Amino acid sequence: MRHRFSLLAACAAMLAGTSVGASAQETLTIATVNNGDMIRMQGLTDAFTEQHPDIQLNWVTLEENVLRQRVTTDIATNGGQFDIMTIGTYEVPIWAENDWLLPLDNLGDDYDVDDLIPAIREALSKDGTLYAAPFYAESAMTLYRTDLFEAAGIEMPEAPTWDFIADAARQISEANDDVYGICLRGKPGWGENMAFLGSMARSYGANYFDASWQPQFDSEGWTTAVTQYVDMMTNYGPPGAASNGFNENLTLFNQGRCAMWMDATVAASFVTNPEESQVAENVGFAPFPCGVENCPNQGANWLWAWSLAIPAGSQKAEAAETFISWATSKAYLELVAENEGWSNVPPGTRTSLYENEQYTSEAPFAEQTLAAINNADPSITDDKPYVGLQFAAIPEFQGLGTAVGQQMAAAVSGSMTVEQALQSAQQAAVREMTRAGYIQ
Amino acid sequence: MARAVSTRRKITFTIIGWTVGLLIFFPVLWTILTSFKTELDAISIPPKWIFFDWTLENYATVQERSNYFRFMMNSVYLALGSTALGLIFAIPAAWAMAFSPTPRTKDVLLWMLSTKMLPAVGVLIPIYLIFRDWGLLDSRVGLIVVLFLINLPIMVWMLYTYFKEIPGEILEAARMDGASLSKEITHVLAPMSVPGIASTVLLSVILAWNEAFWTLNLTTSNAAPLTTFIASYSSPQGNFYAKLSAASTLAIAPILILGWFSQKQLVRGLTFGAVK
């Protein structure tokens, strides 16, 4: 009897030992977006798991819109399916305000949080506390074909204006049958054509809402911006421009069909990669154009950072923070450089990267990218009651931005006039903002 | 008596048939061709049809990044599981409505179909909460039940249509010979409606295989099927068309092969009862 009891006790002890061992091994489920930098990180995580054998990583890679819907559903219902989420500068202020994210206040002594580019750090913080760590960041810039500009005898100024851009687009379109003078986003969506148009309107001094949350689509700035946008797209842009988003324009530019393209700074690494681009050797970079002299933020009216955050319901917060600290550290940038070269390092997050001569010599777009990010200030100001530049960080903006984007696409395709599109956008925005309680 | 068809007419119809067939198949063919190109060739203008540097690099990349086999097996489990469960409920339901109709049968059938008219996203949050509370998130069992419920109205409708074509007198004769209800269904009704059941099974398998809303929203990794696999290769920033095409080709290959070999049953089943 005693033997049997001892045997049972031994078995129980073994089981307990096993369970202790099993609980020591933690698996982090990470929801992430499919882009080059994130995929590269998945290939380099052996370096992390070697340092931390007790943490395993389970990647769930999704397309951006699917990812957004998936993680929003999960965090809003406290589903607990993910330990780390990849989110952007739109979500962070809203989710941090709702207490859906854990503060990242234990990233380690050698993390050097002060090295993060101030504009990015600010965009991912609430009351001075970081709620998401930036993996890569972007602003907007002008990408243009140096060979076509040279052939046309045009020189890109240091601070181009939209009038100059429109004139250059006309000249190059007239001189080249198979090249479109300008390629811009036309596909409707708050993160598609409205990201571009929001920036362009800002370059004319117009915001989405004024200080009392009144929509501004009937303002002079928006009217001038959209009129010029539609004019350029119709006369010098590609056919069917109303269905072109980032990828469609990237394809056209890489095929050598676009003379100019204003879009996210991250495009620069794609168009200068000879494995993807037929014009890699002939690309120049300039700031995002201004509508008026000394326009807001010197044309840099775009700020976005894909960032890693921990949902408040996570049971593995400590391990998750350890991983986030590794993935967004200076050491990780060096690891990418060692394995893939400096030009493949995720851009836009750390000041020290732009002080690294090896990086600046291998990435010809580095200087322009840093200048654009540094100039972008998404914070609340006297005339702008919301965080964000190319978007407004309020929950209603996704739906509203997409609805307005559809009106703008209708103007580009010619089924509406600019005046009708803006009027319709204004009515929809006033209705939505009143319903949501912003306008009393 | 069959009407004589002139050779000219035959040729015309053959050409029309082939043109329509090729038009429908073209996107699939283009996806398969693109999967063997480099990213640069994939976006070249004019498009390269056959004469390009054929490469298997995209398949190697996809294989290296994702465990294709795990995703495929999940798709197989979900498609077959939901279909099998669907048959268990749909056959008796269709039998009852076809052979013992009540004044409300038509209303019930319409009501069942009306559930398909509700946009899925409208019930996402309630279903997500139920799944969370019952621990069914990212589980095959949970998804099998959801896919079964989604396809059940269509399965009942299809089977009902086939069963209506079978003369009730045959079942009556079986009853006269002493067949029980279960024997009547398994020994008389089922063998007579094999083409109908086969095409219902095929359609249900295809619908479950392609279902991309619930499978994306209710899974993370353990139960994720091929729809999630494809979604992981779609990128809003960066042209990875060749890799996406390789992933898509791998995802549609099993169902394409299944459809190819069972097309006779599918056509026979879908046209069953069309000509009397």
CATH class of the domain at 66-232 in chain B: Mainly Alpha
Task: Identify the most extensive interface between protein chains.
Answer: A-B, 42 and 30 residues
Overall residue-averaged pLDDT value of chain A: 90
Unreliable runs of chain B: none
CATH-derived topology of the largest domain in chain A: D-Maltodextrin-Binding Protein, domain 2
Quote the CATH topology of the domain at 66-232 in chain B: MetI-like fold
User: How many H/I helical runs of chain A?
Assistant: 19
SSE string of chain B, helices as H and strands as E: HHHHHHHHHHHHHH
Q: What is the H-and-E element order of chain A?
A: HEHHEHEHHEEEEHHHHHEHEEHHHHHHH
The CATH superfamily of the largest domain in chain A is Periplasmic binding protein-like II
Largest sheet of chain B: none
* CATH architectural category of the largest domain in chain A: 3-Layer(aba) Sandwich
Separation, N- and C-terminal Cα atoms of chain A: 80 Å
The percentage helix of chain A is 40-55%
Structural class category of chain A: alpha+beta
CATH superfamily of the domain at 66-232 in chain B: MetI-like
Rg over alpha carbons of chain B: 23 Å
How would you state the average pLDDT of chain B, rounded? Answer: 88
What share of residues of chain B is helical?
over 70%
Backbone structural class of chain B: mainly alpha
